[in-house]
Amino acid sequence: MAMKNYILFTLLLSMFSLAAQKTVSFKYKNTYLTARTTSSVKFQNTEFRLDNVSSSYNAVKRSVLPYFHDLQNYKVQYQLSDYKFIHLLHAYVKSQPMSHNQSVVTLAALLELSGLEIELAYTRTELFLFVQCEEDIYEIPFVQLDNKNFLNIFLLLEDKYIDNQDWYYNTHIHKKLDGKPLSFLNDQNSYAFNLVKKQFTFNDRGENINLEVSIDKSSIDEWETYPHLSESTYIEHKMNSITVQELKAQLTPYLQNRTTKEQVELLINFVRNGLSYAADEDFFGKSRPLNAEETLFYPYSDCEDRCALFYQLVDELLGLPVITIGIPNHMTAAVSFDTQDVFEKEVQFEGRRYIICDPTGPENSSEIGILNIKYDVSEMEVISNSSGRYLNN
Q: Of 61, 157, 363, 382, which residue has the fewest beta carbons closer than 10 angstroms?
């Protein structure tokens, strides 16, 4: 009899555990994922204070801890950056019936478990989540705590903004002393490609060169979610392997049997004359830097975008040191290679001679070593350079 009661008790306990463990389905990057969840910790209808924010946060953190590994496995599987993982976690949280404040506390607990340094801010009735970030970000306000910059993550996720005069920091209950700052990018794109074809035509030596290149629309959509990052981030971000392979396959036959100068001229010809120019404000309605792959995807590009594409083309196809240079109201590029030719516009950088190769113009020309813009050398600033990989050459 005792054995029967024990078996019945064990069965009931097992059924209770299964009932307590629910599974939710949520959409991330056009894919439906599943993860375990548990009943949300309910908030009292009261004004927030340090004590009840602390108790609520700790209760939520305990409740999500057993299921965090389900979500962490997706980060590993898709090789997600911190920022992409935040979007995945946000999609997971929003798939459940929670109030805004419950969503904030749940996401905060998940981010702390992922290793990020976070802070909760609160008004009398609303909670906000801040994440430490060391990257240069424009048009998004930072707040500073303990000499560290913190970003209002819900401002990016849900366009939630709060007047700095009307909230108070909770800096004691959950801060991770060993927490890491948020990173936006990684070099991996392991999610499923969504390839679209783009065509380009330019004339070289009296012959029309026609290119058809596959662009990953998933990556384009991903970059739409990013805030305005530093210029070097866009320039140095590499194109996906399929795009690079197709560009190499189609351009290499034209690069063969040419001098290095002529090879650089071919690439500058493609960027200048194979793409259509428009200022960001005219096409996007705002400042919108593009990386190389985005420059190939969108129908218009400006000087910064073309520098990003030219920088990647020279690096991937020619393997030459290349830099991008900012001057007032313009960005240009320069390439270092051995030549006895004398050019009108050259610069010295880290002991190397660089030839100015302006990706914007002049139009209908492939000439390098010229720059039809007046500038003072003291106003020039090197934004990105690949020369570190060629120091021993």
A: 363
**Cα separations (Å) of 215 from 80, 169, 184, 220, 315?**
20, 44, 21, 8, 19
CA distance 16 to 30: 34
Measured CA to CA, the distance from residue 92 to residue 100 in angstroms comes to: 14
Closest CA to 383 of 314, 316, 304, 265: 304
Q: What is the dihedral of CA 275, 198, 250, 338, to 10 degrees?
A: 30
Report the candidate in 70, 86, 75 with the shortest Cα–Cα distance to residue 35.
70
DSSP-assigned states of every residue in 164-226: GGG-EEE-SSS--TTPBPB----S---SPP-EEEEEEEEEETTEEEEEEEEEEHHHHHHHHTS
What residue spans define the domains of the chain? Answer: 2-170, 195-390
Question: Which of 247, 232, 248, 213 lies closest to 322 in space, CA to CA?
Answer: 232
In whole angstroms, give the CA distance from residue 334 to residue 327.
13
Print burial letters for 217-235: b (CB count within 10 Å at least 16), e (below 16): ebbbebbeebebbebbbbb
- 72-88 pLDDT, tens digit per residue, is 999 998 888 898 899 99
Rounded Cα distance between 318 and 279, Å, is 29
* 119: enclosing H helix or E strand: strand 118-122
Architecture of domain 195-390: Roll (3.10)
Classify residue 297 by burial, with Cβ atoms within 10 Å: 0-12, 13-18, 19+.
buried
pLDDT surpassing 50 at residue 65: yes
- Highest-confidence range of 25-29, 105-109, 352-356, 384-388, by mean pLDDT? 352-356
Rounded (5°) CA angle 308-314-316:
95
Contact 204, 254 (CB under 8 A): yes
Helix, strand and coil percent figures for the chain, each rounded to 5? 40, 25, 35
pLDDT tens per residue, range 350-359: 999 999 999 9
Chain centroid to Cα 358, Å, comes to 26
Q: Is the peptide bond before 359 cis (omega within 30 degrees of 0)?
A: no
Rounded Cα gap, residues 371 and 378, in angstroms:
16
